[in-house]
Amino acid sequence: MKRSELHRFITGLLFISPWLIGFLLWTVYPVLASIFYSFTRYDVVRPPRYIGLSNYSELLFKDDTFHIVLGNTLYFVIIGVPLGVITAFLLAALLNNRMRFRSIYRTVFFLPAIVPAIAAAEVWRWVYNPRWGLINSVLKSMGLATIPWLSSPALAKFSLIIIQAWAQGTAMLIFLAALQDVPRSLYDAAVVDGANRWQRFRHVTIPMTTPAILFVLLTGLIGTFQYFTLGWLLTQGGPNQSTEFYSIYLYRNAFRFFKMGYASALAWLLFILIVICTLLIFRTSARWVFYGGETE
Amino acid sequence: MGTKKLSRRDFLRLSAITAAAAVVSSACQPQQVEPVAPAKSEEVPQAEAPAAEVVTLEWWWGWGGTTSANALEELKAAFNEQHETITANPLVPSNMDEKLLTAVAGGTPPDAAVGNIAFSELAARGSFTPLDDYFTVSKVVQKDDIVASLWQDGSWQGTTYGLAACEVGPRMGFVYNVDLVEGAGLDPENPPLTWDEMYDWHEKITTFDDAGNIDLLGFDPLDAMGGRRPTSDASFFWADSMGFEWWNQDELTFNFNTEGFIESLKTIKRFYDLVGVEQMEGYRSSYGTWTQSPTASFPAGAQAAILNGYWTPGELAHSAPDKRFRFTWPPNSSERKGIKFQNVGGHPVVIPKGAQHPDEAFTLLEFLTTPPAMDIIFNTTGWLGPRISWLEQLNVSQYPGLEFYLESAINADELKPCPLCPISSIVGQELNDTWDAVNFGDKSPEQAAAEMQETLTSELQNQFPELLG
Questions:
Q1: pLDDT tens per residue across span A206-226
Q2: pLDDT surpassing 90 at residue B330
Q3: Nearest to B20 by CA among A167, A16, A138
């Protein structure tokens, strides 16, 4: 390397050194440490004890709770992520039309995405309250039985999924930007060819926004696998372990049960699971994602 | 000859180097020494007295709520006024267990802590400062004047790591709303002595609306002390009531796969089945539990009976002053009808290992056991303290019903110890999961008890092989 190039390189490093130091200290080091701890019995306050692959084998083959937790999380991901994507897309499609007060509607639909989680939890706790909640009050006044939204194992997960779908403001904005980027000429050409509204939506709108759909799907998947806050605030894993999600179980093991080694193994298994799902989606994306400007 | 100008690139380079150097040098600075407050003195000395260093104690207090906050403010003021060279700086952290764990692990623990902490778990892992030497020389804490069982509750394997203060007293009692019992046609002078008799009350008191929603609940067996996991400050209610020992302190073994525990699971399920498990869960989440909040089901008059400790009279005096309550012995299994059991526990004040000021923290611990501190706490919250001489002179007429609890510690047929289990958090979670599994019909009581026994035995072996040999 020439002296001047070396000079420029060092200058660049100096400029990014604050971020670099933080990244090494608070991301790289904890990640490497957690790999090490996942092979140990470690309760945070005593030195770790090396136990090889015991944590992983116990998780995969002996821990019944882990299997329940994995099932709950996969349920949430398989239903919650597509529902969130569809909700956000449909909202964006609605907002993409010319209408009065469009900016007000856009703000209203986006607001849930920026409401703090604790505030959202309190609001939905009231909405779902079995006796005085918004929904159950109406049912009671009509002489009907109330719905145990968060106290029924059969309904609790879906109740949380509804809250997740309510907070899709950020995804909605991404889709809105993508929709507004679809060339008008394509719609005009489709009209000339006799396509009706649904056909234009299906054969022009959706294909042209598939890159955004892929992005929202992937980020939604990664985030939903790590779902924690509202589940912890509203149900704490109950009733009957029906909302014991992966991150909740990981947190309990790390900070309640003094099993940081076990929690580290849980974290790495989750990472592998997310990587596998992400790779699968990338692999299949070539078939359904259309990048504008491509030629066959 | 032209003057050499500083180019934009050079200026930016120099600025970046200067900024980076400033960041690095500020990180390497030695810690600032706290300014020392001059010592107070009543007379002006001829020669200047050396300035005494004022130590600031970081003190974690584990209870929220208005009455508790008032108690803390008064305690802080009283302590700071009494101690010129020590300033107590209390903090009320949420999720104290997790925060105390990470603070101890990170080497930045508070100087003292009290509240719902995982005492036996942290003590078993060497996270607290041993206090025996402190108590030996203490002129404030007289060993014989402290309720005897509290010494055991604050120790692990023969070493004392804490002493219960701030909230101490009998944990077990059966409390019922006299008006609701009378309204159901029952006799409030004859409370149930067995679970069969209690079920009869539950059946007669519980009512539903036309749509099948609960209107009034007779009894929730998992509310308050009924649903509380066993910890170092309270025994396990269902073990005490059914007469089985779930944890053998000497042999370090669990005993959940027993008739007593299975019977307790069946009993709880019976109460749940009358109203429907989802209805019961929903009812509890609508109102809330325990007795401190006026909107919780029992103070609100939405539930007729509860299992709760000595703090109940004080709390109900604030949360439900207009209602009539009776306090008596909890029911037992039929075989144990009439047996009076009680458990006296309390929350140990601890000095975490690595505390910066352990000597001063012990001074705070001593203060919390003194009559002025106990008076503050009792008058603001209704909570009791650990000193026998103070308890004997206490005027309990302020909180009707409190005399039952104080007398129960003397009149009990069985006085149960608080368990010291080094994996009590896991025990608590397993209990919750077992209750749910049985109440929701996923597992039979026998299956659930056997699985719980196996799980806990395995966990103890994994985490403490050195204790089990």
A1: 999 999 999 999 999 999 999
A2: yes
A3: A16
C-alpha distances out from residue B9 to A2, A11, A32, A69, B464, Å:
19, 10, 38, 56, 62
B93 touches chain A (CB under 8 A): no
* Cα(B341)–Cα(B408) distance, integer angstroms: 8
Q: Do A41 and B462 touch (CB under 8 A)?
A: yes
The model's confidence at residue B453, banded by pLDDT at 50, 70 and 90, is very high
Nearest CA in chain A to B14: A11
Q: What is the DSSP string of A143-176?
A: TPPPP-TTT-HHHHHHHHHHHHHHT-HHHHHHHH
> What are phi and psi for residue A237, nearest 5 degrees?
95, -15
The residue of chain B nearest to residue A259, with distances taken between CA atoms, is: B463
The nearest alpha carbon in chain B to A133 belongs to B286
Residue B383 dihedral angles phi and psi, to the nearest 5°:
-80, 150
Q: Residue B327's pLDDT band (boundaries 50, 70, 90)?
A: very high
Interval B402-417 mean pLDDT: 92
pLDDT of residue B40: 41
Four-residue CA torsion sign, A104, A110, A114, A118: positive
Check if the beta carbon of residue B61 is closer than 8 Å to that of residue B92: yes
Q: What are phi and psi of B177, to 5 degrees?
A: -85, 115
Measured between CB atoms, does B465 come within 8 Å of chain A? no
A131: burial class by Cβ within 10 Å (0-12, 13-18, 19+)?
A: middle
Q: With CA atoms as reference, report the closest residue to B410 among B432, B388, B381.
A: B388
B278 touches chain A (CB under 8 A): yes
In this prediction the pTM is 0.88
- Decide if B463 touches A, using CB distance below 8 A: yes
Report the amino acid identity of residue B300: A
Whole-angstrom Cα distance, residue A67 to residue B50? 66
Q: Which of A129, A131, A241 sits opposite B436 (nearest CB)?
A: A241
Residue B278 with chain A: CB contacts under 8 Å: 148, 151-152, 239
Q: What residues pair up with B177 in beta bridges, in sequence order?
A: B325
- The string of pLDDT tens digits covering residues B147-194 is 988 999 999 999 999 999 989 999 999 999 999 999 999 999 999 999
Say how far apart CA B377 and CA B78 lie, in whole Å. 12
